[in-house]
Design goal:
mainly alpha; elongated; Maf protein; 2 strands; 6 helices; two-stranded parallel sheet; 109 residues
C-alpha cells in the first residue's frame, strides 16, 4: 500500500494539472507534460473522477503515450455509486482534500 508521501505527490500532480487546465488546448498540453513527468519517473496514474465527468481520463486516453503511463479511470456521477463501486463514504463532502484522497486510495493500482 502506498504511503502518505505518495498520496501527497499525487495531490500535487493533480493540483498542477488542474491549474494548467484553463481550456481544452491547455488540458492536452498539461496532460502531455504530466505524461512526460510520469514516464521519466517510471510511474503511472489512474483517476477517479466526479465533477469532471471523465474529462481527465478522456484527455489522458487521447495521448499517443497513454499505454505507458495511464492505467484507466472511474467516473462517478451519482453519490451512491461512490459507495457501491469504490467503497468510499457517499455522504462525505466532495471537492475536498479528504475526498480526493479517498478517491486516490480507491483507484490505486
Amino acid at each position: 500500500m502506498a504511503g502518505p508521501d505518495l498520496f501527497c505527490e499525487r495531490r500535487r500532480l493533480f493540483l498542477n494539472f488542474e491549474e494548467l487546465c484553463t481550456n481544452l488546448n491547455s488540458k492536452t498540453m498539461a496532460a502531455a507534460r504530466l505524461a512526460a513527468l510520469l514516464q521519466a519517473r517510471q510511474q503511472a496514474v489512474a483517476v477517479a473522477e466526479c465533477a469532471s465527468g471523465g474529462l481527465i481520463a478522456s484527455t489522458f486516453s487521447r495521448l499517443r503515450e497513454a499505454p505507458h503511463f495511464f492505467r484507466g479511470g472511474v467516473v462517478i456521477s451519482h453519490e451512491n455509486a461512490a459507495q457501491s463501486i469504490l467503497g468510499i463514504d457517499s455522504m462525505a463532502p466532495t471537492a475536498t482534500e479528504a475526498h480526493a484522497l479517498q478517491l486516490a486510495r480507491a483507484v490505486q493500482v
